[in-house]
Amino acid sequence: MRLRTMIVDDEELAVDRLKMMLSEFDEIEIVHMTQNPWEAYQYAKEHRLELAFLDISMPELDGLRLASLLGEIDPDIRIVFATGFEEYAVRAFELSALDYVMKPVTARRMSLVLDKIRRRDRNAADGSFRPGPSPGNERSPGSGLLTEQEMRVMLLVFEGLSNKEIAARLNIAAETVKWHMKNVYRKLDVSNRVQLLRRAEQLHITF
């Protein structure tokens, strides 16, 4: 089954580039392209969509708000942000984005996005997932399973809580939260919260 896909970016060249890349994948059916986010919203209200590639920095209606509106229309629409601004990654994953791709988008990076879609479709019937190595990859150094407390801390990070707020929620010291986060970073081979969110997406960790 091909995924009915929309591309939204206020730059014509960016739209054309994504169209060219996505046309190489048999799973993708591009049904709408636009530089106007409000037009994209109206289209989504009238037509079925399964995948949307959104720029973030757009006039009048930015990509984050558009993603929220699309989610209200159909929470099953997969959202991929393609943007030149890394600082919005945390907010993007809070909106349950499928992926966050930095411009200029490369063919290899787009291939990873499609790989993620394929894995999610194969595992759609699965209930939960314990963190471990990515499918098809060798085990990364230090990527052992998280303890229950480390998982609790990580999930609260995904909710946007600070270390102090996490400590209060779990009734532990803030220094203990830092210690748990250090272990999480080591086991998942990341160095900050943005990378952690991306790694969690790669491992299909539910949050």
Give an account of the 3D structure.
With 207 residues, the chain is α/β, with parallel strands linked by helices. The protein has 2 domains: 3-122, Rossmann fold; 128-207, Winged helix-like DNA-binding domain superfamily/Winged helix DNA-binding domain (Arc Repressor Mutant, subunit A, Orthogonal Bundle). 47% of the residues lie in helices and 13% in strands. It contains 9 helices and 5 strands; from the N terminus they run βαβαβαβαβααααα. It has helices spanning 12-22, 37-46, 63-73, 89-94, 107-122, 148-158, 163-170, 174-188, 193-202, and strands spanning 3-8, 28-34, 51-54, 78-83, 99-102. It has a 5-stranded parallel beta sheet, sandwiched between helices. Strand 1, helix 1 and strand 2 form a beta-alpha-beta unit. Helix 2 (37-46) packs parallel to helix 3 and helix 7 packs across helix 8. The longest helix is centred in the middle third of the chain and has 16 residues, at 107-122. The protein is elongated, with a radius of gyration of 18 Å. The two termini are 27 Å apart. Residues 127-144 have low confidence and may be disordered. Residues 4-118 form the Response regulatory domain. The modification 4-aspartylphosphate is found at residue 55. Keywords: DNA-binding, Phosphoprotein, Transcription, Transcription regulation, Two-component regulatory system. Residues 124-144 are annotated as: Disordered. Residues 139-204 form the HTH luxR-type domain.
